[in-house]
Write a structure and sequence with these properties.
seven-stranded antiparallel sheet
Length: about 290
Amino acid sequence: MRFSILAVALAVFGALAVPLAASQGSQSSETVVVVPREAVAFQPLNPARGDAGPQAGVLWGDIREDVPTGTIIRFQPGFSSPPHIHNITYRAVVISGAVHNDDPSAELMWMGPGSFWTQPAGATHITAAREDVGLSSAFLEIQQGPYLVQPKDRAFANGEFPVNVEADNIVWIDAADVSWVDVPGTSAGSDEAKIAFLWGDLSEVGKNGSFLKLPAGFEGTITGGNAWLRAVVIEGSATHQVSGASEATLLNPGSYFGSQAAAVHAVTCTGNDPCIFYLSVTGKYLVSRS
């Protein structure tokens, strides 16, 4: 009976989704939207469990519709879901704590901040949060909806396989060594931007996802995504300034900025640690130092 309550609550997750414009405290221009973590409104996935269950904060899109959507999910320490499936494939990145996502019979593999996983549609799995590391959170992205949670007896094979990559196993490449990101004035091995390709089509019109690591103290711009660019802060602290704005917005992990058309994003990596962004873009993007 417990599973039935959870499945029903998650299946109506779309009713909790809010449009991007509903985020409070965000900056925007005609083409750019900036949403700091503090402005993201969280709601329980399962009202019956209240704060004890996962909480969802929609960054963009609408999980009820057939549109791309990005969401932050928060898990209480020790949370573990029952076995279930999704009707669509999703990708996710751990932001804080430690998360396990795998077949119900698999040994626990805790993925820390900066880890990446994919969950194929139709595959039975569980999702859990480690108990001894405080609140865990992850960014979840879908390319189409609606996003539903369904019982394991509706499992099906869609030809995809899950991917779980712990942060320490991410392969970083100097941005100057890849052809699908432009970094003027950089040379391989320098203390500049680094890239880790995650998924997608690297053609001029293809959609793809990657990690972008900027060194501490970086000041410059990210430009591109003529039809689509979304950047979620995974690690470190950065500031972003909308063109024409008098002040920059502080972006801690769980914040994001994006644009629907060609736009220049002025970004500074503050503090002593590098900044890591998850970028979902169409085509190429350009990283330039000021």
